[in-house]
Amino acid sequence: MAVHTVRSPATHLHTGTSRNISPSHRNPNDAIRFSFRSPKLRRFISVSSSLREGNEHGKENSVRALEVKKIPEDSPLLPKPLSSNQLAEPVSNGSRVRVAYQGVRGAYSESAAEKAYPNCEAVPCEEFDTAFEAVERWLVDRAVLPIENSLGGSIHRNYDLLLRHNLHIVGEVKLAVRHCLLANHGVKLDGLRRVLSHPQVLDQALAQCENTLTRLGLVREAVDDTAGAAKLIALEGLSDAAAVASAKAADIYGLSIVAEDDSDNVTRFLMLAREPIIPGTNRLFKTSIVFSLEEGPGVLFKALAVFALRQINLTKMESRPLRKTPLRASGGLKYFDYLFYVDFEASMADEVAQNALRHLEEFATFLRVLGSYPVDTTML
Q1: Among candidates 65, 36, 33, which has minimal Cα distance to 48?
Q2: Sorting pLDDT into bands at 50, 70 and 90, what band is 262?
Q3: Quick check: is 315 catalytic?
């Protein structure tokens, strides 16, 4: 596996340096499958999936499914999210930058994409994987995907996908999240029995609103994403269910807001591209890396010291177990083998940052720079 560093004409960094490492560090991520507890929701999702994948004419079947529900061609429920088997089809509305996001119209990710790239063509994707692949296959120009939330924590799936794919982080955007409880018109709060949203990805809406939902005595059910929950409520005309989603989703799908959450809630999104940007020193930059270490006392301390000794501030650290070979034998004991994701405040154009990574490379078993990019300093 190769050790990657950012190439910058201004700093003359060396690139393409390769090092052989053990097979345990190759392809460390496996695909993750999500299961849904609700039989009704599972039937809805599996039917949609079979229409796309169970027939070689999947696209035509999807159109027929929409016609059965009598959704007009100009309905805001369209377009459908991009699926993995549509990645070969061109998507463009002209010269606007095309930005992939996970979810359907009204998702917080759509708002983040529009904040990151004003006047962009936002392209919905069914899965995070699909958004990564759409950029790699030149179907879109960029992707904007969530990486952490101030209440729900890290989006682990996207950490894993950052390593699996060869995209570069070229920026970040922070979005203030305001959850609303959405229901069909005429439905009262005391008539609700269950609430739909995504349990973990994006902004982990159910976890964030746990106290409110518990107080109302609502049963929680999982669906693809927050805006997808609102879409399902509208399509099915449910009278005993509500969705945790955005006010924008309420407008798009014709739902009413029956309650709002006023928690301080921010989601940080990454902007991904096929090529890295050239780092500069004219503004505040952040660099994201991933590395692994040999097992031993003080090894992680030594890794962090390469930054502390140079007065480089770390803003984020996340550990993820290697999925292929999570356990390592040492001295008769078995240990978890980890990857460490680190964000630090420095540009790869700075010599001090280059020296820190050269130092880390001396003893790290794997090191890759995911991106060096401007910090989002805009007001929420």
Answers
A1: 65
A2: confident
A3: no
